Q: What sequence folds into this?
């Protein structure tokens, strides 16, 4: 590892974040059971998971880097691209698709002014199609940061920018 | 109409709170259970004909029975709640968790007692953050009231992978690994979480336990059909006037379910009904009078699944539907087995070609062939589904597929 890369690993997290990650190693009866939750925390803080961060998580969990990196790149929640502070998901599962999710994807692109999986220039918002989010009765369903908002409409999408 | 899980949903807006739940008899079953022999409880669950409502329909009592006893295999054993509901069409767990978290916790505590688990887990999909908060609050309430006893219930969130909802992939996820399904045997009840005996049950399945303990296994069995006891909760969407959650006795007729939810929409003709989530090929008009229980639906050529019912009408196109489902499966294939990893992608691309108007007659045969080379040749049910969906839609709606093929010349 180059000195720069080593430094990036060392400085991947703030002391508070380090403490939170250590807490995930102790939360469950076995250390490894906390890994997914720890990576969820990293995704929340950085809005992406980068190799340096994964390497530091690997050190904290006492796991090889390639294991943690394999996990981080397997699950859709973890991204290499930086999500917006508000990560908007539009469901395109079958019911939502039949209810017009494709049209709502276009509406999101137009309203937020960015293509999918790209944060707005101020970093506040990003959007992406998601696989079934379990809200078929409200399709096409919209969620923000893992919380269901409800039916995607031109109106509900126009309100995303002002959402707290 | 007999209801078990959703009985109080209309009349009790605060059913999710401990006070209301207890006022209606909540946690009395746990008290009763703790005063019973574990073997006697297991016998009641077997008698009840309760079957796994997460999709597989495996008899719950039989599953529990395969957990080796403490004298044979000493050490910890676990109960894991599968709340990783991700099958398109399914949202019953979301509503059961929102409205009745204590019903699940009580069921989980009963199961933990029977199995002898001191640590139990609720693995919930990450996208259900609202429900995670509700569970956290309910667990704190139950803990404060001293109801958890010696059992520690851990909450854990997933990270967006559909395959994590499959029991062995769920255990891998919990262990901090890629969600690659395991090839049983051993089954999780013998070697599950951290290779310890582990029972994985769905939210709805465990939520049935308070009723079974209170009323007895026989009473539960009587509500349902011959080999599927109790009720089943359908989450209904698609071409219906009143989408939502519906609870019926096992064995209810499809016709009656459609009447209740108002499907298909007025002026539309029924094209089919996906009975349990998009992995299950649709039931057809001719199946309106079959009984909806695990075995009858299977005899009709599909699966009851996890009750995620999607009503399809004549404005919908089978190629578009199949493409949407195969696109989903391609995205969610974990990549472990080659036939599924490659085959799902091929299917999606061929279906895309058909949608693009560039399809040829050979494409339909190729789709069938690709499907046949996946189903039964992979570790888990996701791969099986890739082929089942192709066969299901091509077989049921051949005209929709032929229409998409360029005529020669």
A:
């Amino acid at each position: 590892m180059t000195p720069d890369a080593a430094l990036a690993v060392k400085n991947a997290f703030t002391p508070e974040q380090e403490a939170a990650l250590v807490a995930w190693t102790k939360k469950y009866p076995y250390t490894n059971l906390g890994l997914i939750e720890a990576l969820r925390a990293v995704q929340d803080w950085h809005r992406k998971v980068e190799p340096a961060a994964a390497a530091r998580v690997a050190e904290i969990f006492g796991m090889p880097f390639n294991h943690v990196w394999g996990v981080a790149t397997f699950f859709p929640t973890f991204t290499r691209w930086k999500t917006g502070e508000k990560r908007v998901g539009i469901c395109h599962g079958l019911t939502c698709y039949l209810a017009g999710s494709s049209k709502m994807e276009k509406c999101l692109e137009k309203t937020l002014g960015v293509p999918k999986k790209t944060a707005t220039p101020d970093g506040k918002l990003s959007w992406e199609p998601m696989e079934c989010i379990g809200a078929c009765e409200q399709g096409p369903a919209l969620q923000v940061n893992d919380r269901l908002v409800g039916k995607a409409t031109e109106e509900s999408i126009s309100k995303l920018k002002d959402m707290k | 109409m007999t209801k078990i899980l959703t009985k109080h949903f209309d009349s009790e807006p605060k059913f999710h709170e401990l006070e209301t739940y207890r006022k209606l008899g909540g946690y009395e079953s746990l008290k009763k259970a703790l005063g019973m022999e574990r073997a006697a409880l297991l016998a009641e669950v077997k008698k009840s004909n309760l079957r796994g409502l997460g999709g597989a329909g495996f008899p719950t009592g039989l599953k529990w029975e395969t957990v080796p006893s403490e004298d044979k295999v000493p050490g910890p054993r676990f109960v894991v709640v599968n709340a990783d509901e991700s099958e398109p069409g399914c949202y019953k767990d979301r509503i059961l968790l929102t409205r009745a978290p204590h019903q699940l916790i009580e069921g989980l505590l009963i199961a933990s007692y029977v199995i002898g688990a001191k640590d139990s887990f609720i693995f919930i999909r990450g996208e259900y953050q609202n429900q995670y908060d509700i569970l956290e609050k309910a667990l704190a309430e139950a803990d404060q009231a001293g109801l958890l006893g010696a059992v520690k219930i851990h909450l854990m969130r997933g990270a967006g992978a559909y395959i994590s909802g499959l029991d062995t992939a769920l255990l891998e996820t919990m262990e901090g690994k890629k969600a690659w399904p395991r090839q049983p045997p051993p089954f999780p009840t013998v070697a599950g979480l951290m290779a310890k005996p582990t029972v994985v049950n769905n939210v709805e399945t465990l939520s049935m336990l308070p009723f079974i303990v209170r009323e007895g296994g026989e009473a539960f069995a009587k509500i349902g059909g011959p080999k599927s006891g109790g009720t089943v909760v359908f989450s209904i969407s698609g071409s219906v006037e009143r989408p939502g959650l519906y609870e019926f006795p096992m064995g209810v007729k499809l016709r009656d379910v459609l009447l209740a939810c108002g499907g298909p929409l007025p002026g539309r003709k029924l094209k089919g009904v996906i009975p349990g989530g998009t992995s299950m090929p649709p039931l057809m008009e001719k199946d309106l009078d079959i009984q909806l229980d695990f075995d009858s639906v299977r005899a009709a050529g599909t699966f009851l699944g996890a009750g995620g019912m999607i009503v399809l009408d004549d404005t919908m196109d089978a190629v578009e539907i199949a493409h949407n489902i195969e696109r989903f499966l391609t995205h969610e294939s974990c990549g472990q087995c080659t036939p599924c990893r490659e085959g799902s992608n091929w299917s999606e691309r061929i279906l895309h070609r058909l949608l693009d108007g560039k399809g040829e007659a050979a494409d339909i045969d190729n789709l069938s062939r690709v499907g046949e080379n996946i189903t039964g040749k992979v570790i888990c049910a996701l791969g099986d589904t890739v082929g089942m969906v192709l066969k299901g839609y091509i077989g049921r709606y051949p005209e929709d597929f032929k229409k998409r093929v360029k005529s020669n010349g």
